[in-house]
Amino acid sequence: MAAKNVSLTDYLVVNRSKRLKNTFVYQIDKIIDWKKIEKTLLKYDKRDSKAQYSSLLLFKMLLLQTWYGLSDYEIEEKVNDSLSFSYFCGLSVEEPSPDHSTLSRFRTAMTQAGVFDKLLDVINKQLEEKQIIVKNGILVDASIVSSPYKPKGKKQYTVTKDNNTGESQLEKYVCDSVDTQAAYSVKGNKIYYGYKKHYASDNEGLVLAVETTSANVHDSKVFKKLLEKMALPLSIPVKADKAYYSEENISYLRANKLKNHLQHKATRGKKLSYWEKVFNKLISKERFKIERTFGSIKRWFSTGKARYKGLAKMHTQNVLEAICYNLYRSPKILLYGRKK
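Above: the chain's sequence. Below: its structure in token form.
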């Protein structure tokens, strides 16, 4: 009996599972129930029901794009070229990737619908069920995200005339390349232009809630808004540095029966006591975990700068990075457990 001819495509499909079992994307597929993610996406996906590509496929492309620090053009090319990427997205070997413009329009539509915060919650609930996320303590901190779209050169103005009086007036001219929703901030001796991403995490640094502001907004002003995004057990300790120490925030913690683990702040005429200094050192030993989160996201995903212009799009970037960070750490936590 003559042997059956096997094409290259058939060979790749048959051997796909053998080649992908040790890849990161294969491990994530075994942890997450994507049907729950798709259900959330479909509530907000207003595209034609006959759209060629599903919202879940496009969302998975956004995850891959964030994990590997790729542009819209690069992720399109990578999904077409990579067996593991196409597998993760649910594409067969013969199917082409969605083009970069389709991905961009999808991201914009989902940003306008405010769906990414909801996706973070849905994914985190699954991680809680697997004991990857454990809410036995909350860490709060913020990090500046520099924007390349800052004002450059001298300020420019245009001269216009009032139609009624005929008098000349000066109007500030804003270049299209400038992100007007970003702002300047000073940290240490450096001046930054951009945004702040505010994270609340569990004790291992896995992100539970995200807020995005312009860089000039003080950290303490976002404290309550972050905590209100989460369902927290009573008496859970909330740890943060002295920037968050204020009567308003302390009162909020007390009113919501949350433990106040904010670092004490010295004021004019009132130095910290010995025990307040000891307390601050103890909190510092825990706070490094959320600082590690910011550093790991920057290092692992080749990020740290604003990819987009505008507060809404930057919030999408920050939430996607949080989702990707939680998923990236999940396989190892599931395998080795959480540190005691």
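DSSP finds 13 helices and eight strands in the chain.
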